[in-house]
Every structure is written in structure tokens, then in C-alpha cells.
Amino acid sequence: MKNTCLLLMLLFTAVAVSQTTGVVKDNNGNPLPGASVTIKGTTVGTTTDFDGVFSINANQGDVIQISYVGFETQEIDFTGDALTVTLQEGLSLDEVLVTGNRSKPRTAIDSAVPIDNIRTADIMNVGEASIERALTFAIPSFNAQDQAISDATAGFAPADIRGLGPSRTLVLINGKRVNQQSQAYLNRTPGKGEVGVNLKSIPIAAVERIEVLRDGAPLSMVLMLWRA
């Protein structure tokens, strides 16, 4: 009697749970590889292969949920038959908004190397009085910090581009090289032991635009200023 009951339970289980196969396609009949196929309300699921075919164990009355990126999710009541699912394309985006403070094109990428072209009118809005402090907020790779109690270095604010020392930045005004100051940066300031150009001596109002050669020589960068 006990063995008979066990056999009946196994038969009912075999009837209730069955493996079904199916295929997922789009509106044009093309298979959708990688579509997600799950039984709603459970953790049972699978994905379609390269031909859009899937295989899953489901019970009578289960709801099979099929989803794919860019298509509307579809739910089907499982009846035991093989499934052929056609997904409808989802709603398209009416408008895409890009947020960010540097979305406007300012880099010449059609040149031999990228060149950032920044107008002085743009950097004067940051509220900084000196040109090196204003460039800190306008150029991500440019860094300059005022140094307190650092001997004569406090009057220069060492500036560097892409982490290179202040002496590795070539500064040009109207194509002519600007001489570096003679004071070496001391007292654990950026670029300690080096010298650089005193950008504080160049007033922002006297500059029309600034060009930064981002990919210069391996050990140097170019900061070019054009007078109005």
C-alpha cells in the first residue's frame, strides 16, 4: 500500500511539472538571444540561446514572464504546449537631455592633438581674481593652490597640469615663451625644488583666450595665452 501511494505521488508530480521549450522573436521574426524567461513569483528562470530558444520547467497554470531590453514585457499562462513568443518593441524616448557643465564643445579634436580652447569671458564667471585659480575650475587637469607661510612661494601659487611639475609646463603668450621666475618652490609645496612661471603676473583682463595642448611631449605641457 505504501509503495502504491509513493508511485501515485511520483506520477502526479511527473504530470504536474513538465519541461517546456519555446522561442522568442521580435516583430520581424528575428530571434532574440539573451531574453529573460522566468516563472512569475519564483526564482526559476532562464535565458534564450543564440537562436532565441529556451527551455524551462513549469507547472500547469504558471505564468511565464518574458522580457528583453527595448521590448515590452509579456506574460503568458502556461498550458503545457510549446511557446512561440513575439515581443513588441517598447516605447521610444521622445527626448534625451544631457546634463553637465562642460557639455558645450570646446575641444578641437580634429587637430593633430586635442586642444582645449577657453575664452576668458567663461573663466571670469568663476569669481577668482587670478588666472591660475580660475583655470583650476575650468580645466580638470590643471591645479594651482595658494600657499601660506611658504617663503616667497606664497606669492607664486605653483601650477601644474596632469600632475607634472610646474617647470614642465611651457607657457606662451602670443606664441612667445614666458620666462620662469628664479625662486625655487620650497617648504613642501607642490613642485618642491622646481621653478615655474608666475601666472599671477598675468591679468585675466589682458587675455582674450587660452589654449591648452593636453597631449604634449611626454614630460611637458603647453599653456598658450593670447592677448586681446
Overall body shape = elongated
Which architecture of the largest domain would the CATH scheme give at its second level? Beta Complex
Our Rg estimate from Cα atoms comes to 34 Å
Oligomer kind: single chain
Separation of the first and last Cα atoms: 104 Å
CATH fold description of the largest domain:
Ferric Hydroxamate Uptake Protein, Chain A, domain 1
Q: Would you state the CATH class of the largest domain? A: Mainly Beta
Order of helices and strands: HEEEEEEEEEHHEEEEEE
Number of strands: 15
Per DSSP, what share of the residues sits in E-state strands of 2 or more residues? Answer: 25-35%
Pick out the low-confidence regions.
6-16
Q: What is the CATH superfamily label of the largest domain?
A: TonB-dependent receptor, plug domain
Report mean pLDDT, rounded to a whole number.
Answer: 75
**Alpha-beta content class:** mainly beta
Q: What number of domains?
A: 2
Helix content: 10-25%
Main β-sheet, spatial strand arrangement = 8-9-14-15-12-13
